[in-house]
Amino acid sequence: MRKFTLSIIIALMLTGHSSAEVIQTGVLGFLGTTEAKFQTGLDIFKDKIPEGYREDIYNSGFVRSLRNDTRVIHFFGSLMRMMMSLRSGNIDEVILPEEVGRYAMNLNSELEVKFMSEIFTSRISFAFKEEDTALKAEFDRAILAMKEDGTIDELAAKFIYSGGSRNPKPMRPETFEGAETITVAVTGDMPPIDMFAGDGKPAGYSTAILAEIGKRLGKNIRLVNTEAGARNSALISGRADVVFWYRTVKIELDAASGVDNSVFIDAPDGIILSEPYYSWKREIVLKMSDTTGPWGLFRRK
Known about the structure:
Elements: H1 2-15, E1 22-28, H2 35-48, H3 60-68, E2 70-76, H4 79-88, E3 93-97, H5 98-107, E4 111-117, E5 120-129, H6 133-148, H7 151-159, E6 181-186, E7 195-196, E8 202-203, H8 205-217, E9 220-225, H9 231-237, E10 242-251, H10 254-257, E11 271-273, E12 278-280, E13 283-288
Parallel strand pairs: 1-2, 1-3, 6-9, 6-10
Antiparallel strand pairs: 3-13, 4-13, 5-10, 5-11, 5-12, 7-8
């Protein structure tokens, strides 16, 4: 009998199957809320998910997991630290925009898709101090013109991809002698949208957008590096005039569930946001491969 019981325990350890799991989940920290508030919002959201909600090929597994399992949220100030924590086994999964997740998978064969989700709708904008309405208006006009003439789509096709191996040459902003200089803080935490090239200099889609905006406005763009968690302080302190800003704008179910949508929105007081220049509807949940390396059997599922 004892041997039989031990066999069951070993089998469960090796397969990782259980009726419910406690899953440690990494998220790039939202500056508009706290980790505790985000956790509370997710727990309320979980309780309100009805049976059978959005049971389709992309997110039925994630919805089922949200409903049945317990997720413990961990905020990270940078993508690198979050991915290192995943690799070391301190967390079980990370949630990223699809393009960012697939870019990470292309660089690391140990990563694999756990779930796809369409619960969140997010977009990328530029953020300014709330008093910089004139600068925001200039950026808005340039972005809207770029949408209208197709430049936004052309740059997206060149710099953004899902799982591809190409790495286009960065577009550096032009220099205009005697013109005003706008300082923009870059985090590098959303490749290939916001990233650093091999030489450590800013690159990616957002940098290409900035180069085009600078050209249209006739202004110099100076790029400085900052961590994602320091974006707001860089802006408010005056170290930067503009920062890249990734924000969630819609959460499925929130009208019916009574979930406080604000806990999922990365938009602190004191900032204003430009017209969005990129958006996505799918998030990707990544984990480390269960069979990678000699210790694969002991990875947490």
